[in-house]
Each structure stands twice: as structure tokens, then as C-alpha cells.
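name: query_chain
kind: protein
chains: 1
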Amino acid sequence: MSTIQGALVVSWLERGGWRFLRDSQPDTYQVFLLHIGATDILKQYKGTKVYWFYVQAILDFFFSATERAEMCAELMRVPEFQNDSGFRVFLDAAKAEIRCQELVSVINQSAGIRASLRSVG
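structure:
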């Protein structure tokens, strides 16, 4: 399929790692970079369930729920994926991630629980 879309996915993940891991978890950030750049799995976009499963596994392992929701919202706005039927697999998971995070936020606001007391990030 498209190496352009693969490059966009890698760039998107790199930005997320830079933003959320680089300063707070430098050792984890190095491992993260190895996972997204050491092979051509992400660079060669296939638009398959397996491709997006690999992306989701990276998100789940390295990022909190809040960070994943923010990152998913960002990727959903990328024009190169708007009419891509292969992206639908990830899009459904991304929408669920965002909704879940919105629900957690609403519950926390209504319950008056400080974020530092929660176990969900």
C-alpha cells in the first residue's frame, strides 16, 4: 500500500513519544523508539487488521488512557486516512478510546476526585 501513510503513522507515534515519554521516562522513550523504528512493519502501511493491531499494541504498552485518547483524536484528523477502508479497524478502536476517556473525565468531575488519587491514567 502506501509508504506515505506508513510515514505518517511513524511520525504521529514519534510526536506522541516526544510529547509524553521523552522527558518523563527517557529510558522508556528509547525502547519506544526502537519499537517504532527498528523494523519496516509500521513504515510499510498495509491497512490491515494486523497492521492496526500492532499500532494499538504500541499505544497500549507505552501510553496512558488519556495520552492514547489525545493521540487517537490527532490521527483521526489526518486527511490521508479519511477514505481508507483499512483505517476503519483503528478508527472504531480510537473512537472507543476517546469516548472512554471522556466518560472517565465526566465521572471524575462529578465525583470530585482529584486525578492524583485515581488508578486510571
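note: DSSP finds five helices and no strands in the chain.
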